[in-house]
């Protein structure tokens, strides 16, 4: 009877260890796939020069050129204002050239 109890206990321990190993392998593999995806695509920040057209506002420019890397439209506008040494009133004039930032995803493969 003792032998049967030991056999069943050993079998349970073996199954539990196998489940733990399988779980660790699963987590490792799925985490590695996510890391590889991040490593193959990287966002690179670029700058371009645009000419302000009649009726344009910083908000309009932000809506056109802002990418997902910015947390808010105001953050993007603040950066454009800073880069171009604009006043805090955020007024721009048609014909003015502005340097604006944008991000582009680069495939590293």
UniProtKB/TrEMBL annotation:
It comes from the Bacteria. This is LysM peptidoglycan-binding domain-containing protein. Signal peptide: none annotated. The chain crosses the membrane at residues 12-29. SMART domains: LysM (SM00257). Keywords: Membrane, Transmembrane, Transmembrane helix. The keyword Transmembrane applies. Residues 48-100 form the LysM domain. It comes from Coprococcus aceti.
């Amino acid at each position: 009877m003792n032998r049967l109890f030991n056999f069943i206990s050993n079998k349970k321990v073996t199954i539990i260890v196998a489940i733990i190993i399988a779980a660790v392998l699963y987590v490792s593999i799925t985490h590695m796939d996510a890391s590889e995806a991040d490593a193959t695509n990287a966002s690179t920040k670029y700058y371009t020069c645009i000419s302000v057209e009649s009726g344009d506002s910083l908000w309009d420019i932000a809506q056109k050129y802002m990418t997902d890397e910015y947390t808010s439209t105001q953050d993007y506008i603040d950066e454009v204002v800073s880069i171009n040494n604009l006043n805090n009133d955020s007024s721009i004039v048609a014909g003015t050239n502005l340097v604006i930032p944008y991000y582009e995803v680069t495939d590293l493969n």
